[in-house]
Amino acid sequence: MPGLQIGIDLGTTSILVYVRGKGVVLHEASVAALDAKTGDVLALGNRVYQMVGRNPDSLRVVHPMRDGVISDFSVIHAMIAYYIKRICGNRMFKPSVMICMPASVTGLERSAILELAIAAGAGRACLVEEPLAAALGAGMNIAYRGGQMIVDIGGGTTDVAVLTMGTMALSRSAKVAGNALSAAIQRYLRRERNVMVGDLTAEEIKRKVGCARLRSTELAIYTRGQSYITRLPTRLEVSSTESFLAMRERLDDIIDVIHRVLEETPPEMAGDIADQGVVLTGGGALLRDLDALLQERTQLRVRVAKDPVNCVALGLGVMMESQNILEENSYFYRTDDDIGEYARNRNL
Ligand SMILES: Nc1ncnc2c1ncn2[C@@H]1O[C@H](COP(=O)(O)OP(=O)(O)OP(=O)(O)O)[C@@H](O)[C@H]1O
Ligand SMILES: [Mg+2]
């Protein structure tokens, strides 16, 4: 089919677009500004990100993805349509679009996403499970006959999957990932320091001094907030130890998901994972010392993929560049007609 081939990683925090032959061409925040009265989409992506927590009453800032799945279809439709238009311009042929979604989405959600992609300007669309794309993007050989474990820690979800021979043998998804860690820092500062900090400040604290284990040499950051008692602006110093204490329970939740998948893994594959180690992808994998913490608590070798934030989009790229991987793993593009038939067959 003529026309561009595009891969979209629709994440809770960010949307990445890969264009075949070009690579990752777009990395935008998954946020939109809507007119508070009419609900019209006024602006999208990175331009809106800095408005989070600062928007005037006339604007409503929305996160159209929640916990890895679409929570606001009309905004996601507007986003995909806008980015397809930006990438394809006035090309005559509509693009083929590959979209990633968490392994846990239901059949109903699948057909809704496909329909949405076609309505937003795709000529044909295909859905790919996120852990598989992440593994390809991390450079793993998914055709390997043994078991391999991949852990993708995004903004909304942590997806743990065991792959074998190009398919997912088992997977689990939990709604605890990067956003939950930032929220834990906000709660800690309100409780222990009587200071409220906004979402962007909590994110900055996590990135600059956040760590998954206690450090022998402490890090600290000066930042701003609002006193919970006087409601006046205030400055405060936050240390890496405090960030660790704040995030500790949420980190335990992430470890629990990994443990549960390991418990459910059949012994042969568990042995393979012990040989191969575990690969971490997603922006959450960048948290300082997270690999060391997971290594200590699972007794497995843990490595962070090169370029963890881009892994899913790069994996879609690998799939597009090699049609074989698509066909061997039973992924097929669907057109408008297929989707109509699919919906009719399932009485949707
Ligand atoms: N240096 C860093 N240290 C700690 N966390 C980080 C760092 N860089 C990014 N993150 C976190 O990574 C998360 C975003 O990761 P990613 O872009 O993989 O998520 P996503 O794909 O949008 O979400 P999901 O896959 O859950 O839908 C955010 O919570 C962000 O705070
Ligand atoms: Mg993701």
Task: Write a short abstract of this structure.
Helix content is 40%, strand content 27%. With 348 residues, it is α+β, with helices and mostly antiparallel strands.
Q: What report would you give on this structure?
A:
This protein starts with a strand and ends with a helix. The chain has helices at residues 46-49, 73-88, 107-119, 130-137, 178-193, 199-209, 240-264, 267-276, 290-298, 311-321, 323-328, 336-345, and strands at 5-10, 14-19, 23-29, 32-35, 41-44, 59-62, 65-66, 69-70, 96-101, 124-129, 148-153, 158-164, 167-174, 195-196, 220-227, 233-239, 278-281, 302-304, 334-335. The strands form five sheets. The chain has a six-stranded mixed sheet with strand order 3-2-1-9-10-19, sandwiched between helices. The protein is of the alpha+beta class and 348 residues long. It is 40% helix and 27% strand. The chain has two domains: 5-133 and 311-345, Nucleotidyltransferase, domain 5 (2-Layer Sandwich), CATH 3.30.420; 143-304, 2-Layer Sandwich (Nucleotidyltransferase, domain 5), CATH 3.30.420.40.
Secondary structure elements and pairings:
Elements: E1 5-10, E2 14-19, E3 23-29, E4 32-35, E5 41-44, H1 46-49, E6 59-62, E7 65-66, E8 69-70, H2 73-88, E9 96-101, H3 107-119, E10 124-129, H4 130-137, E11 148-153, E12 158-164, E13 167-174, H5 178-193, E14 195-196, H6 199-209, E15 220-227, E16 233-239, H7 240-264, H8 267-276, E17 278-281, H9 290-298, E18 302-304, H10 311-321, H11 323-328, E19 334-335, H12 336-345
Helix pairs in contact: 3-12, 4-10, 5-6, 5-7
